[in-house]
Specification:
By secondary structure, the chain is an all-alpha fold. The chain contains six helices and no strands. This is Pentacotripeptide-repeat region of PRORP domain-containing protein.
C-alpha cells in the first residue's frame, strides 16, 4: 500500500475501495492512516460510511489494543467516531 495514497486526478472512488484500504491498514496495524482514510472517505469524497467500514475500524483498533475505542465504535458507530477522530493524536 505504500506510505501514502495520493490521488492526482479526479476519479470516482467506490465505498468498496475504501473498505479495502481500511482492511489493508488493519492488517498492517496502521491506525493513524486507517483513521485518516476513514475521515477522508466522508469529508473529501462524500461517501457515507456503512457498517462494513465501522467494522474495519473496530478490527483495526482491536488489533493494536485500543479496546475501549473499538467498543465505543462497535456499540454506537456514528456517535463514537466523532470522539475517536478528535482523539486521533492520542492513539498513534
Amino acid at each position: 500500500m505504500g506510505h501514502q495514497m495520493q490521488i492526482t486526478e479526479p476519479c470516482s472512488l467506490h465505498h468498496v475501495v475504501f473498505m479495502s484500504i481500511l482492511l489493508a491498514c488493519s492488517n498492517s496495524r496502521l491506525v493513524e492512516d486507517g483513521l485518516k482514510y476513514f475521515k477522508s472517505m466522508k469529508d473529501d469524497f462524500g461517501i457515507k460510511p456503512g457498517i462494513e467500514h465501522y467494522t474495519c475500524l473496530v478490527d483495526l483498533l482491536g488489533r493494536v489494543g485500543h479496546f475501549n475505542l473499538a467498543l465505543k465504535i462497535e456499540n454506537h458507530p456514528r456517535d463514537a467516531y466523532a470522539s475517536t477522530s478528535s482523539s486521533l493524536g492520542s492513539i498513534a
